Amino acid sequence: MIKIIDGGVTAPKGFLAAGLRAGIKPGKTNKDMAMVYSEVPATVAGTFTRNRVTAAPVQWDRKLVTEQETAQAVVVNTGIANAATGEEGLKNSERTAEEAGKALKLPKEQVLVASTGVIGFQLPMDVILEGVTRLAPALAHSRQAALDAAEAILTTDTHKKEIAVEFSVGGVKCTMAGMSKGSGMIHPNMGTMLCFITTDAAVDKALLQQKLREVVDETYNMVSVDGDTSTNDTVLVLANGMAGAPKIEAEGEELDELVAALTEVCTYLAKQTAQDGEGATRLFTAHVTGAPDRETARTLAKSIITSNLTKAAIFGKDANMGRLLCAMGYSGAEYDVSLVDVTMCSRAGSIKLVVGGAMPPFSEEEALKILEPEEITAEVELHQGEVEATAWGCDLTYDYVKINADYRS
Length: 409
Prior knowledge:
33% of the residues lie in helices and 26% in strands. By secondary structure, the chain is of the alpha+beta class. The strands form 2 sheets. Strands 1, 2, 3, 4, 5, 6, 7, 8 and 9 form a 9-stranded mixed sheet that branches.
């Protein structure tokens, strides 16, 4: 049984964190560097962006995750993405890991790095390296340390995104926690920018990697804010085993419990990313049911939440189901249009706006009331099978353009 608790990445045993302002972008006041550290080597797994323009820290992390069993620390900076920076950018990621290794008395290969921010600029390495040396002694187990780290990884986000849960492995209580950032340049294909998950459970690396990929596919890869896949998308999991539970080495009840915890953490953080989309005022969920197969359900759900016209209609509280039906129609999925029903739902109630592929008469006043709250769901029934899928997005507002028109400033 999964229990949500108050906590961040320091909630599992043996994990410390810190966040502070290093000064990466002059004239700002925000915290801009974070560190997460495990007291012992932790089994590591990761998933990364599918964008061919891959940031230097992603290349460093992907190599470490692929070639070794464990890692012990993560260093994160905001403000500059260290993407499209060539050989110098790659060397700077390695230098960051090396400096953190010195400060923590670890080999550089035990240190993962992550960056987020503006693409195309080199990191100010004097600031980064000084920040690393200040982060190490600031590491703490406390709740405040987790909050500081969660704040320090944000860019255009409007709030911290973190969660902690408890679960059981072999009768022993374990904890899993995560923090993430992501508000813009978010699209299925590893659809969050940065996410860091810690757990004190012990698990085989191959199993952890496999299950992370499966969970990411159903959570982060079902999120879109603006249709742009970032150069820096990264999800990392560190499992240090310090809860003292039996190591999970095969399929079974214990692995199911860990996967349930991972799904809870990733689903929550993915939805937070969609809800906090740049300029967004509403979380927009598409829940497709009655599909003949998984791919049809997923394709239709994602097409609905990524349609700019549908997103604009949600912003305007406009019950324009022609936008939604159009997005389904060009998705490439095979389905019988004449069987489709669509019901729009919110805490204000529900209203059926499509019946058998056509739009019946309805009360515009009632529809406006349903579309007013901050969370809206399109329930799409295909009547062609038993499979379902859910995707999360947000509305498209004037502020999205304003934010991205002057992002570099």
